[in-house]
Design goal:
Length: about 290
């Protein structure tokens, strides 16, 4: 974080809420809760990370007023990586085992984490994603699920799932079709292309594009701007949600399609998935 941000941030003592794969902080002066993704052994959505996110979301949602939180920021502790997406090693093993129930359970945990952010934890907070590096698959879905997406130059985002004959099933289409339109959402998903932050800014998917190393400062600059007319910002978001809401039921319906499609993957698809797992491990090692 910038020196200005560090001076106003204090850690929360969660006692019974020990998180293994996220780091959380509260900036009480600026009314901001920070959640840093920190998964191991790979920078993906491990079951432990999803469990941590669920407990943190519940805590913020139930105690936003008590904590004095008006903004929530999701970022990453892994240098150069926001998140590389789903736990492909787990996907691959469950598909090979024919374990549909376990795959659905994992997907449901992903939906729960994503929807909590979309729904602003059921509280009056503005959600912000700060991307400083790679955000792929579920990582990109998470970045898109916030009210505001701030990205540093040099960051890259995309949906590579088509490379192993699947599609991103935890909210990509729902989010993209509303932020862009249905046709461009399909084109982006089926291309498998990884886009630069600059390209996504031109498309309107990235709200704030800043120089590398300036992400945290940009978060505080955005908060300062919104605070000048927060009532208007909040009201407009409420109108947007009324006009074209993303419901939990919609996300679950899409997830069921994804699970059925995943169970039909062939050996060559699983081999490609295995190569992508190796790539995730390599990227994590380089970042470490």
């Amino acid at each position: 974080m910038s020196s200005q941000a560090i001076s106003t941030v204090t850690s929360i003592d969660f006692s019974a809420r020990a998180f293994a794969q996220i780091a959380t902080q509260i900036d009480r002066k600026n009314e901001v809760a920070w959640c840093y993704l920190d998964p191991t052994p790979r920078a993906c959505f491990t079951p432990q990370l999803l469990d941590d996110l669920k407990r943190w979301s519940e805590h913020v949602g139930n105690n936003a007023d008590q904590l004095g939180v008006k903004y929530h920021v999701i970022a990453s502790k892994t240098p150069g990586i926001f998140n590389l997406g789903g736990d492909l090693d787990l996907f691959r093993n469950l598909v090979m085992q024919g374990n549909r129930a376990a795959l659905l359970s994992y997907g449901t945990d992903c939906i729960d984490a994503l929807y909590a952010n979309i729904a602003r934890f059921g509280s009056d907070v503005t959600t912000i994603s700060l991307v400083q590096g790679e955000a792929l698959g579920g990582g990109f879905e998470t970045a898109l699920s916030s009210d505001v997406l701030i990205a540093e130059r040099g960051s890259r985002m995309g949906f590579p799932e088509v490379l192993f004959n699947l599609f991103p099933g935890m909210g990509a289409y729902s989010l993209l079709s509303r932020k862009l339109d249905a046709k461009r959402a399909e084109r982006m998903i089926l291309s498998g292309k990884v886009y630069s932050a600059e390209e996504l800014y031109e498309m309107g998917l990235v709200d704030e594009l800043v120089d590398a190393g300036e992400g945290e400062r940009a978060v505080y600059a955005y908060i300062k701007r919104e605070n000048r007319a927060r009532n208007g910002f909040r009201a407009l978001r409420e109108v947007r949600d009324l006009h074209d809401p993303i419901t939990y039921a919609e996300l679950m319906d899409v997830l069921l399609v994804w699970v059925d499609a995943a169970m039909k993957l062939q050996h060559r698809d699983l081999r490609m998935m295995e190569r992508l797992v190796s790539r995730q491990q390599q990227q994590g090692a380089v970042a470490a």
